[in-house]
Write a structure and sequence with these properties.
It comes from Kitasatospora albolonga. This is Maleylpyruvate isomerase family mycothiol-dependent enzyme. Pfam families: MDMPI_C, MDMPI_N. There is one protein chain. By secondary structure, the chain is α+β, with helices and mostly antiparallel strands. The chain has two domains: about 140 residues, Four Helix Bundle (Hemerythrin (Met), subunit A); about 90 residues, SCP2 sterol-binding domain (Nonspecific Lipid-transfer Protein, Chain A, 2-Layer Sandwich). Helix content is about 50%, strand content about 15%. Strands 5-4-3-6-7 form a five-stranded mixed β-sheet. Strand 4 and strand 5 form a beta hairpin. The two termini are about 25 Å apart.
């Protein structure tokens, strides 16, 4: 498994936003999002669109530090409660962010909160921000959800890197607990050859690699469903996946990687 190309990430931000917009059309925008219960569907959409605009502002301005939300034009959402206005606002924000990313290219130095200070980080981050929140919207609207296997795999990879980054920082007590010699988790996609991850909890930190090996607990199922469980959008007890071994260790991981 390798990273997607920069151009593919830019394409996916647009495609995932279009798919999110399709979920929202005709849906009850006041419906509570079960996986983000503090939000309704409209608030979820505004969160995603605001993130796109924020990143677009960072990239366009070649920001060297964080850009406050109040300085991002249109961040708070459309000025109307009309669903058509929300739809247009989402489309405009994604298109503007992607235009800025394409113009800058992958290697332009900009502020990020993470391990690399390049525009490539934001193209990937906005792809998976939209992928996962589209799943939230689909669950709330009770409509089917699918995602390309290479995108689902990269969503897992990126989340592993984020959790690792948080643990390396040493300031999050829950991430710090993701250690303990001898324990391991195996993610095994049953529908995509090679889509497997072995996560090993070492004494100081956790590591991961692609491997087919026996682990303390294994999570098996279609790749999209593995991604949804790993991002806490599908319960590990779902009949769509299979948990073999120490299910409490999987719960332990999910409980302590729930930030963000």
């Amino acid at each position: 498994m390798t990273l997607l190309s920069y151009g593919r990430y830019c394409d996916e931000v647009l495609a995932q936003t279009d798919a999110l917009r399709a979920v929202l059309r005709g849906a009850d925008l006041t419906a509570t999002v079960p996986t983000c219960p503090d939000w309704n569907l409209r608030q979820l959409a505004v969160h995603v669109g605001g993130a796109h605009r924020w990143v677009g502002e960072i990239v366009r301005g070649r920001a060297a530090e964080d850009v406050p939300e109040e300085k991002v034009p249109g961040f708070e959402g459309p000025g109307s409660e009309d669903p058509a206005a929300l739809d247009a606002w989402l489309a405009e924000g994604a298109e503007a962010a992607v235009a800025a990313l394409r113009e800058a290219g992958p290697d332009t130095e900009v502020w990020t909160w993470a391990w690399e200070r390049r525009t490539a980080f934001w193209a990937r981050r906005m792809t998976h921000e939209t992928v996962v929140h589209r799943a939230d919207a689909a669950l709330a609207a009770r409509v089917p959800y699918t995602v390309a296997p290479e995108v689902a795999a990269d969503t897992i990879e990126e989340w592993l890197r984020i959790v690792s980054f948080v643990q390396e920082g040493g300031e999050d007590p829950e991430a710090n607990e993701l250690r303990g010699g001898g324990r391991s988790l195996h993610l095994h996609a049953t529908d995509v050859p090679g889509a497997e991850w072995l996560i090993e909890l070492g004494e100081d930190r956790f590591t991961w690699r692609h491997a087919h090996e026996k682990a303390t607990v294994a999570l098996r199922g279609p790749l999209t469903d593995l991604m949804l469980v790993f991002n806490r959008r599908l319960e590990p007890g779902s009949e769509r996946v299979e948990v073999l071994g120490d299910a409490e260790l999987l719960d332990f991981w999910l409980d302590r990687s729930s930030f963000g």
